[in-house]
Predict the structure.
Amino acid sequence: MTLLVAIVAADPVRRLGLAALVTRAGHQVLESHGGADVLLVDDVAVCSDGPPVVALGAAEAGQAGLLPCDATAAQIDAAIRSVAAGLIVRAADPRRPGFRAIGDEEAPLLTAREIEVLAAIGNGLSNKAVARQLGISLHTVKFHVEALLRKLGASSRTEAVHKGLKQGLIEL
């Protein structure tokens, strides 16, 4: 889908670079805000009653899209398409844990049930109490505990809970 994008940038060289990026993504660059589907703003404060704004390197001011000034071409294109569809876009906060790649040694891929079992263990429940709380058999709980220990590389339930907390898999 081709979108009409107006670009506002204080630096003319940066504006040309953004225009090239937008054009490569398959959108059309407009010279004025009128008729634009999205307004792409680089490090300038713009109050717009018109199209949704994707701001690069700006402070939070209610824009539909807000990305760091060093956002990649793919991120900018995704933000343009998203705000045109009515979504709100914010860059991920690097201080908050997010999704990790599959196969990342630091963050094993646990099933939802394994995370529930790990959280219950973290709350001090015995295997029998976990089985009652989750409505599963004692054998199934033991199976999940063994899988947790293996996936987390832990030698005890306590170590598994510690690693789960450290990696942001559970909260107590």
Observations:
- The longest helix spans residues 138-152.
- The CA atoms of residues 50 and 74 lie 24 Å apart.
- The helical segments are 12-24, 73-84, 112-122, 127-134, 138-152, 157-166.
